[in-house]
Automatic annotation (TrEMBL):
Gene3D superfamilies: 1.10.1390.10, Glucose-6-phosphate isomerase like protein, domain 1. Belongs to the GPI family. It catalyses: alpha-D-glucose 6-phosphate = beta-D-fructose 6-phosphate. Keywords: Cytoplasm, Gluconeogenesis, Glycolysis, Isomerase. Its EC number is 5.3.1.9. It is an enzyme of class 5 (isomerase). This is Glucose-6-phosphate isomerase.
């Protein structure tokens, strides 16, 4: 077993996998896929959700060796430590308990010796009550009109998760019915254009602004919050803030200082990481305002079902564990640095951007949890677009250029089925034909011999050859209900944790985002000095000085 200070790459299990790469290099997915026994062992089902990882460049032996790696990394112990509320986020001295956010009311999950589930449910009950008041019109705005539109201000984890879930639910028939006559918008970027776009067509009289920030110090969110406070007070007067602005934060003192009534504040806790906060008030409040609490509760239940599966299922049948181990295999052993997330579902169009933060902010680290420099790379470069749109964009590179392991995500049932009489298949079948075809195109490719048989002219054969042997996995969900959306979220959250646990890093801090923020403060100070007192540019290198000079000399910013 690895001692807590040792790096995982020093273990026998890691070295064994390194050696095993040579065996895998001799295989081709074309041949691996013809072994039905192997393929059968690479299918997993949980509550109607089917995971097929038979198109990974892996054999049954590879999976065994990865399970040995999990043992060497003490994965089981690390998962237990997370669920037990130990301070596994050691650089911030915090527990990591997003699982408590969706735990049933009678569950017991402790942080620092205290069961946190009752506190979680206090806030959920408060959200239920508040969102019902807003939705029913019993809480009205300053001029007596019901608040039918919501702008949620927040960035990063205070934005991407809620946006993903909102986008996923928008066309779900049950959720859509509950959202009739209401709008939910998200203001994230400090670019004033984002303010203009999000307020466009909205009336302050009928708008509720939700300021979402774990710290309540994030520069972009706070300036956007002040900008919308101005938008409201200019139209309705200062007292209107009490009726039109509420907040979600862990920093209740700063919320009050900002001028939002503490009664209209929805708390969460420092044991919830920003990118893991969609199941806290961060997501639950705006989503309940839009869809009603009962829809959002189904989403929480879906996430909870995966938490239980993750915590209690043996690793060889554990969806997030296997996915995490396979990602480690692809990144650290096969040397594939990127991953494409390809949902064949327009409703999942914001899934890849959310997972980008969950995965890249969590696992893009250069040192172990003990601070030792890592002699191997961690994390992966995540990107993605819904199919089939992506097929007409970047799939060329995936098929014939670089090897990028792909996650194909599809649903059996469409949220919005359409069949036109006379068409060969329904519109969803058309979409899903691509979902089923693409993984095989990547795995099998097309050989020069096949092309010759098709009488392709000699000069085009190299161009039309597909090497194949490109790994992917397929996740087929029964449908995209609120429950399944919750499951999908939790699968990826835990997968990322598994990767981090195996790599031996801290997946729950994010020091890498700090330096840029500090340098922006220096620029902000300079811009203020130059614009108000004509202060000379000072303390920047040649490049930044030149760019700033051009910006100051030619910009037409409003007078300060
Ligand atoms: O800058 C990165 C970050 O700290 C993320 O981790 C976080 O999700 C985001 O900023 C927003 O932070 P907050 O919710 O505190 O405004």
């Amino acid at each position: 077993m690895a001692s807590s200070a040792a790096l995982i790459c020093e273990t026998e299990a890691w070295k064994d996998l390194k050696g095993h790469v040579e065996d895998i290099k001799k295989t081709h997915l074309r041949d691996l896929m013809s072994d039905a026994h192997r393929c059968e062992s690479m299918m997993l089902e949980f509550e109607g959700l089917l995971l097929d990882y038979s198109r990974q460049r892996a054999t049954v032996e590879t999976v065994d060796k990865l399970l040995n790696l999990a043992k060497a990394a003490q994965l089981s112990e690390k998962i237990s430590r997370m669920f037990n509320g130990e301070h596994i986020n050691s650089t911030e001295n915090r527990s990591v308990l997003h699982v408590a956010l969706r735990a049933p009311k009678d569950a017991v999950i402790k942080a620092d010796g205290k069961n946190v589930v009752p506190e979680v449910w206090n806030v959920l009950d408060k959200i239920k009550d508040f969102s019902e008041k807003i939705r029913s019109g019993s809480w009205v705005g300053a001029t007596g009109k019901p608040l039918k539109d919501v702008i949620a201000i927040g960035i990063g984890g205070s934005f991407l998760g809620p946006l993903f879930v909102h986008t996923a639910l928008q066309t779900d028939p049950e959720a859509a019915e509950c959202a009739k006559g209401r709008q939910l918008r998200f203001l994230a970027n400090i670019d004033p254009v984002d303010v203009a776009r999000n307020t466009n067509g909205l009336n302050p009289e009928t708008t509720l602004v939700v300021v979402v920030s774990k710290t309540f110090t994030t520069a972009e969110t706070m300036l956007n919050a002040r900008t919308l406070r101005e938008w409201i007070t200019t139209a309705l007067g200062a007292p209107a803030v009490a009726k039109h602005m509420v907040a979600v934060s862990t920093n209740l003192a700063l919320v009050e200082k900002f001028g939002i009534d503490p009664n209209n504040t929805f708390a969460f806790w420092d044991w919830v990481g920003g990118r893991y906060s969609v199941c806290s008030a961060v997501g639950v409040l705006p989503l309940s305002l839009q869809y009603g609490f009962s829809v959002v509760e189904k989403f929480l239940k879906g996430a909870s079902s995966i938490d239980q599966h993750f915590q209690s299922t043996p690793f060889e049948k554990n969806v997030p564990v296997l996915l995490g181990l396979l990602s480690v295999w692809n990144v650290s052993f096969l040397g594939y640095p990127a991953r494409a997330i390809l949902p064949y579902s327009q409703a999942l169009e914001k899934f890849a951007p959310h997972i980008q933060q969950v995965s890249m902010e969590s696992n893009g680290k250069g040192v172990s949890i003990d601070g030792l420099p890592l002699p191997f790379e961690t994390g992966e470069i995540d990107f993605g677009e819904p199919g089939t749109n992506g097929q007409h964009s970047f799939y060329q590179l995936i098929h014939q250029g670089r090897v990028i392991p792909c996650d194909f995500i599809g649903t059996v049932k469409s949220q919005q089925p359409v069949y036109l009489e006379g068409e060969v298949v329904s519109n969803h079948d058309e979409l899903m034909s691509n979902f089923f075809a693409q993984p095989d195109a990547l795995a099998y490719g097309k050989t020069p011999e096949q092309l010759q048989k098709e009488n392709v002219s000699e000069n085009l054969i190299p161009h039309k050859t597909f090497t194949g042997n490109r790994p992917s996995l397929s996740l087929l969900l029964p449908e995209l209900s609120a429950y399944n959306v919750g499951q999908l979220l939790a699968i990826y959250e835990h997968r990322v944790a598994v990767q981090g646990f195996v790599w031996g890093i801290n997946s729950f801090d994010q020091w890498g985002v700090e330096l840029g923020k500090v340098l922006a403060t220096q620029v902000r100070k300079q811009l203020h000095g130059s614009r108000t007192q004509g202060a000379a540019l000072e303390g920047f290198n040649y490049s930044t000085t030149t760019l700033l000079k051009r910006y100051l000399e030619t910009s037409s910013e409003p007078k300060m």
